[in-house]
Amino acid sequence: MTPSTLFYLLITIVIIVFVIDTLLDFLNALHFNDEIPKEVADVYPEDEYQKSVAYKKVNFKFKLVSSSVSLILMLLFFIFDGFAIVDNFARSLSDNPIVIGLIFFGVIMIGSDILSTPAAYYKTFVIEEEFGFNKSSKVTFFTDKLKGLIMLIIVGGALLALIIWFFELTGKSFWIYAWGLISVFTLAMNMFYAKLIVPIFNKQSPLENGALRDTIETYAKKVGFQLKDIYVIDGSKRSTKANAYFSGFGSEKRITLYDTLINDLSNEEIVAVLAHEVGHYKKKHIVFNLILSVVLTGITLWFLSLFISNPLLSEALGVSQPSFHVGLVAFGILYSPISEVTGLIMNSVSRKFEYEADAYAKSTYCGTALINSLKKLSKKNLNNLTPHPAMVFIHYSHPTLLQRIKNIKG
After folding, report:
1. Is residue 118 part of a domain?
2. Domains of the chain: total
3. Within 237-388, where are the H helices?
4. Strands 229-233 and 254-258
5. C-alpha distances out from residue 155 to 151, 158, 197, 202, Å
6. Which residues are documented as binding site for Zn(2+)?
7. Distance CA 223, CA 221 (A)
8. 63-100 burial string, b = 16+ CB within 10 Å, else e?
9. How crowded is residue 45: how many other Cβ atoms within 10 Å of its Cβ?
């Protein structure tokens, strides 16, 4: 295979992925006006349903435009040797391969973030604002962007520097050390994300003593779930949408409730949501997902080690001097079809786990309360109740509301 052939193959893959995603969006859009199934007909009154339809249509058009612009910019970057230009700039500043790699990805990531900011701003302050979701100020929006960029530079930069160092030191065997590094990092994030990362963006406060905390603690004791921390996060600072999540292992596990969730649901419904999260823990879903993620990361890095030293990868992107960082970009695109397949597997497993967690909540607490909470959250978030089956199969990590209700009742 020649560099030219690989170049066109890379572009073809990028376009095919875009076409498939866009086709799925179009198929999904055909169901926007479907009649709501009787099992969930009480979720939306007619006026609320029309609002949800409008919300889906606006987001569909927005995604179509923004993804098309992103595709055009990416193709232009390919055609006009953007990777070679950035690589030459990085090499003009240093001879160290680690520093070159950091500058290369730093320029691309920062440039990408700047270009995507107008779309993110429009999404937040026009679309989400119009439908009553946005509570974020412009200061918060840009502060979040800056914090995210700083974290990417520090954390992402450190990981990338170590991986390039492993490659320079061990050659093709680098994948073993990189796998170990990423696995430890993944475990640490699962353990300490709520303590280390969340406070950078949100304020977390212990749930105050009262009926809700007593009900949660009573349930936790009943199912043998050792619970040390229950926190409330100020999600209303940015959006009216509600959520809850479980994080950590062992002594570090904690439950976090969005303040919007507490405002929208009854105590019984909140505990039903938490019972679902406890179900994930009791059924070992969190551990399984962690192991599966680590295994897939190892497979990906092993494949990377087979191709990364091939100068064809760099040459295909117009870079004459082979390097790890340019090869990584080309490999990432080549590997994307495999990533789509592994994504299908992960989503399929995730949907199965959601059913199991729902069943656990039903058996240990109350299925009716869980159904009511799911309905309220779907209405509050204007969720799509009639998505196309292909969209669900490929992209949904959770079953649809109708599927979950039937599973709980059945």
Report:
1. yes
2. 1
3. 259-264, 267-282, 285-307, 311-316, 324-364, 367-380
4. parallel
5. 6, 5, 11, 19
6. 276, 280, 354
7. 6
8. eeebeeeebeebeebbeeebbbebbeebbeeeeebbeb
9. 11
Does residue 241 sit within a domain? no
Q: How far is CA 109 from CA 1, 126, 234, in A?
A: 30, 25, 29
Helix or strand run (H / E) with residue 115: helix 97-122
Reply yes or no on whether the pLDDT at 229 is more than 80.
Answer: no
CA–CA distance, 352 with 347 (Å, rounded to integer): 9
For 360-381, write each residue's pLDDT tens digit. 999 999 999 999 999 998 888 8
Percent of the chain with pLDDT over 90: 66
pLDDT at 251 over 70: no
Tell me the C-alpha distance between 28 and 23, whole Å. Answer: 9
Residues annotated as part of the active site: 277, 358
User: Do residues 98 and 164 lie in contact, with contact meaning Cβ atoms separated by under 8 Å?
Assistant: yes
Residue 323 in this model has a pLDDT that exceeds 70: yes
Q: The domain containing residue 391 runs over which residues?
A: 3-200+283-409
pLDDT class of 16 with cuts at 50, 70, 90? very high
In a domain, 338, yes or no: yes
- State how far the Cα of 399 lies from the Cα of 350, in Å rounded to an integer: 9
Count the neighbouring beta carbons within 10 Å of the beta carbon of residue 374.
Answer: 23
Q: Which residue type does 214 have?
A: D
Q: Tell whether the model's pLDDT for residue 190 goes beyond 90.
A: no
Residue reference for tokens 């950091």:
102
Q: The pTM is what?
A: 0.88
Q: Is residue 405 part of a domain?
A: yes
Strands 244-247 and 229-233: unpaired
Feature table: binding site: 276, 280, 354
